[in-house]
Amino acid sequence: MIEEQLKIVRNFEVRVRQVMSLCDKLKKENTDLLSQLASLKSLNDSLTEENKKMKLKYDNLIMAQTIHAGMDDFKATKERLSKLVRDVDECIILLNT
Predict the structure, then answer these.
(1) C-alpha 1: how far from its chain's center?
(2) 77 pLDDT more than 90
(3) Maximum pairwise Cα distance, the chain
(4) Mind spelling out the 3-state secondary structure of the chain?
(5) How big is the CA angle at 73 (ends 71 and 78), to the nearest 5 degrees?
(6) How far, in Å, CA of 28 to CA of 31, rounded?
(7) How far apart are CA 73 and CA 75, in angstroms?
(8) How far apart are CA 79 and CA 55, in angstroms?
(9) 21-38, pLDDT tens digit by residue?
(10) How far apart are CA 9 and CA 27, in angstroms?
(11) Rounded to whole angstroms, what are the CA distances from 46 to 5, 9, 60?
């Protein structure tokens, strides 16, 4: 009977050691995963910030292109008006002669 009890106790000790070993492995894995999570959060934050900066640059570029296109239209309109004024001036000169 004592042998059976000793066998049960040994078996129990082996199982406890296995559980403790598994617990240690899981703690290490948890620590590694937490470290990896912190690293990925940091990367995510930096990429989010970079994304905001890129969106701002993109918006500024679109605005600059819109203004530039407006300036081209403005220049073309100004040139057409100048040509019309010259043509009218030439007509007035021709009428006066």
Answers:
(1) 70
(2) no
(3) 140
(4) CHHHHHHHHHHHHHHHHHHHHHHHHHHHHHHHHHHHHHHHHHHHHHHHHHHHHHHHHHHHHHHHHHHHHHHHHHHHHHHHHHHHHHHHHHHHHHHHC
(5) 90
(6) 5
(7) 5
(8) 36
(9) 999 999 999 999 999 999
(10) 26
(11) 61, 55, 21
Q: Which amino acid is at 7?
A: K
pLDDT bracket for residue 43 (50, 70, 90): very high
* Residue whose token pair is 């559980």: 19
Find tokens 């890129």 and name the residue: 54
pLDDT (average), residues 70-89 = 81
Instruction: Give mean pLDDT, residues 9-19.
Output: 96
CA distance linking residue 89 with residue 97, whole number of Å:
12
Copy the structure tokens of residue 52.
């905001």
